[in-house]
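=== RUN LOG ===
request id: a7f3
mode: sequence -> structure
chains: 1
length: 900
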Amino acid sequence: MRLKRLFAACIAAVYFPLAASAIPADPKPKQVRQPDGTVLTILIRGDEHGHMLFTDDGVPLFRNSATGVLEYARLDGGALAGSGIAATDAGQRDAKARAYIDGMDIPAMKQALAKAPVAKRISSKPSRIRTSNFPTMGRQRCLVILMDFQDTQFTVSNPQQFFTDMLNEEGFTYDNGANGSVRDFYLASSFGKFDPQFDVAGPVTLSQPYSYYGQNANNIDIDINFAQAITEACNALDDEVDFSQYDADGDGYVDNIYFYYAGYGEADTGNADCIWPHTYYLYTGYGVSLTLDNVRIDRYSCGNELRGGTSMPTGIGTFVHEFGHVLGLADHYPTSEYGEMFALDPGEWDTMASGSYNDDMNTPPLFSGFERAELGWLDYTDLDLATDTISVLPNLGDSNVAYRVKVPGFDNEYFIMENRQQKGWDEYLPGHGMLLWHIDMDEDAWIGNSVNNDPLHQRVDIVEADGNGGTSSYSGDPFPGTQNIMSVDLKPWSGGTLASLGYINEVDGMIRILLKDVNYTLPSPENLQAVDVTADGFRLEWTDAVDPRSYRISVLKDNGQGGFTVLPGFDDITIEKSGSYEITGLEPSTTYRVELCSYLVGYISAPATLSVTTLSPDFDNASPTGLSAVDITPTGFTATWNEMEQADDYMISLTKHEYSEQNVSRGYDFSERGDGMPDQWETNSTQYNSSYGWYGEAAPALRMPSEGVYLIVSYPETRIDNLSLWCRSSVEGNKLRVEIDNGTGWNTLTTLDVPTTGSVLDVPVGQAGTLRLVFERTSGYIVIDDVYADCCDITRTPVSGYQDVSTGGKAAFTFESLEENGIYGFTVRGVNGDELSAVSAEYIVDLGEPSGITAPDASAEEGPTAVYDLQGRRMAEGSLPQGIYIVKKAGQPARKILVP
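=== RESULT ===
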């Protein structure tokens, strides 16, 4: 559910029926000038029927009508009044102002304001509420009247021509940044089904100054004299306009008149003497009877000429919002409380919420699939919950297509899926992807224009992909969105889960959807081939398909008996989405079979297969194998290795290994999510959290939603002295297990209690090895961020006298007079005349452990030998790629080796 709170202390507005609709206040801060010249930043909250001004840090304001000064508000007999203290921005307040603000009782203001206007408002409720009968199909004529005032006239040189163009001209542009006309907008939103023609009349100069028509009634935020403005304007044009032409449905009422008035509006200036754009009724609302050309004037809409804070004409956002009411749409922002404005609504995604302000009101977003369907412009495509193929949802603006899933047993409740892309009228949306709407129609809510007033039961609601209802996170609302959320459960108001979308992806502007747990067949990878084949490996390449999120590879070796045996280290390994993969560490002149499967959210394809034979090695590409150490003493050892074909001598080198005394901090803050993680770090979570208070120094944090979710922290050739991390749990009782693998498998270092307030925790380590943080879940979820390790790196110092030493053709060499109990590493190269082989893998020997370190492929020794990487995956025999490996041999302790 969306809960977008701009102020913890908010002031309630009063109830007003659907017959009275209005554009919401501009959500952006405004700068106004006080009479003394001071510039004040204000926020306007509410609409025509209930609104207030605040400082930008949430202090309620009152405009002193005698002086024009915006003062800090106070309560006087149950109504708002001025305090006599001129308001300033927070940084300019003196001690008196700060003390007054500290003593303000905002809850009391809220209670008083909620009570005072109600009786008056209810008494002005129309005796009947008309459902809009304005035709929404085909070519329709609409009347627009321009109104001047005695002291305020239109600023454009030819108002009638300007507004005729702004409303009707295809591709209309202007210096205010206009990107099209109102007609353009409605043609695009209706997919060509509704083609309005706006007939502009006037301007008519009214009898009074602007403030006379714009002033609000005491304690009621409504322009009480606007009915007089309508009456004057229509009577003045009676000889010029045939009002009967604008009763398309023949019910004896003009379908609607839109009034443009000269000057500014209250919604984006906060000036109480300006008129607030709105939709209402002259006869059934104000009770004023006006019949011209045998039709009654009743429903109307209105909007201002100039954009607040500028000298330019306002964009079309106000008109398209108010005309949406004319066609029958409700407000989708909460209309009941000042402080909750923009708190429970689709916001910038919806022209019937605050989207009318997008691009400074010049580019409101297209009507949603729901709004189009309500106006008869779109027929839903009902999504069959047994669909076992991937459904492709095109951009709403290009296709007029939206999916619907009905809630069984509740005719008025359903979910809508639509694809929104940032182009055309949708260019200024806060993001792109699939919007999931949860609709729950209720006649009383629509008649009362209270669609999204209940924070516990919104009726036109966006199900946010990132789970964040904050106003700063609109970009995280669509799927996959900024958080790459690719699945969601459809949860009706009655509880439970109606269906689950197991896979949601956006590819080239198209949304691809797969239901969870259906009989879907994932296609096998295509065009599998081996390239760059060498003596010890090759690179696999294939066509990277649209949907698989990962692939699984198995490599099998020809066993010489007519079959293949799975190669250790290559048994169903998982790789991320990619079109290639390097296979190394294989034997020369050997045939292998590769099996490659696509994987997608629980679905795995049949394998694509390929046979590959490695090449025979050249001497300069081969290297000595089978390195080992025997006869280990505290000050020396004998190095051995397998003899190489064609080698007539060997050259051996020795280095001393020590940990640096300098401590270096390394880590990651998840600022680039999974894409930015350090090499050899790994996590099985794809979720992140950007909600305020749920990350460390900066958003986002890594979110761990379920039992067993882990983060691997790995820095090879490093001793980690301490690990620190920021973490927070959504509930009490969740834990984070810290494990280390330094050659003997995963062992628990400690288990942390994850606090429910964001905290930095430290874990002493003091060992070399790979760390793994594992979520032990009770309920809820945890987030972790700012994971940093204090590292001491291994340094290698060449040992004097033992660099490129000839062994005299022997596959063994004895090192003597070494530092007692030191750690050393040696490498070997073969010699064939003037030709040198490649350098062998480094073999590490700890003189403090007389048993030595078993070679990764020491076939000369007895007993089976297995080599694993630090993630526990068994490696193939032969040469190994760069890294640290664990060697396990029957009857001997496990040891580490380093391949440089």
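=== NOTES ===
The chain has six domains: 21-123, 138-327, 386-515, 526-613, 628-648+809-899, 664-795.
Confidence is low (pLDDT under 50) at residues 1-19, 114-131, 338-342, 851-863.
=== END ===
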